[in-house]
Amino acid sequence: MTTTHLLYLHGFRSSPQSAKARQMAAQVASQHPDVHWWCPQLPPSPRAAMALLSAGIADWPHGAMAVVGSSLGGYYASWVAQQTGCPSVLLNPAVHPARDLERYIGEQTAWHDPAEHFFFEPRFIDELRALDVSAVPAAARQLAVIAKGDEVLDWRDMVARYPQAQLRLLDGGDHALSDFDQHLPAIIEFLQLAPSLPLSTRSAP
């Protein structure tokens, strides 16, 4: 089954302006222009973020969609994949965000716009716990790209969390996957993105 609808989820304090999101958006736009791409700015509240996503993909064909998530977005992507039964790509995914983000309770700045501030509230920790789907088997195919050189998350935790996933384990690398362009071809192949249609077969505007 080819993918016609693709959802990309950024990480904590990140945005659709992240390097990986922009690289992937450009790849989809140039090579798979008929694929519906959505990379929303996620609110700080996990519950609100999932409400936004659920509404946004309500009309998507579950049999022809996929989700990609980076860091905290990978944790969210696992939840979305479980709800929809769609394939997922997990990029250095957060495994224990309820534990790891407790120390970030309080005022935070956006990574790509330090002038933008938000407050990470204590209740968000329980909201994160409510999204944990680690106790149930994966609902569909998974690809995990995990860097042993991740300076934020422990690669061993990530590998243990996704035993069923097709694994690309990098000897070095970093949390941001600075060499993301080198992994894009494998990710695109895994996602089975729909090829662009000949102009003659496209619907008239």
Briefly characterize the structure.
The chain has helices at 19-31, 46-56, 72-84, 97-100, 123-129, 155-161, 180-191; strands at 5-9, 36-38, 65-70, 88-91, 106-110, 113-120, 142-147, 166-170. It has 205 residues and is α/β, with parallel strands linked by helices.
Main beta sheet: 6 strands, parallel
The shape, in one word, is globular
Spatial order of the strands in the main sheet? 2-1-3-4-7-8
Low-confidence stretches: 199-205
CATH superfamily: Alpha/Beta hydrolase fold, catalytic domain
Please write the CATH class name: Alpha Beta
Number of helices: 7
- What's the number of domains? 1
- At the fold tier of CATH, the topology name is Rossmann fold
CATH architecture: 3-Layer(aba) Sandwich
Tell me what the structure shows.
The protein is α/β, with parallel strands linked by helices and 205 residues long. The chain has one domain (5-199): Rossmann fold (3-Layer(aba) Sandwich). 33% of the residues lie in helices and 20% in strands. The strands form 2 sheets. Strands 2-1-3-4-7-8 form a 6-stranded parallel sheet, with helices on both faces. β1, α1 (19-31) and β2 form a beta-alpha-beta unit. It starts with a strand and ends in a 14-residue tail after the last helix. Residues 199-205 have low confidence and may be disordered.
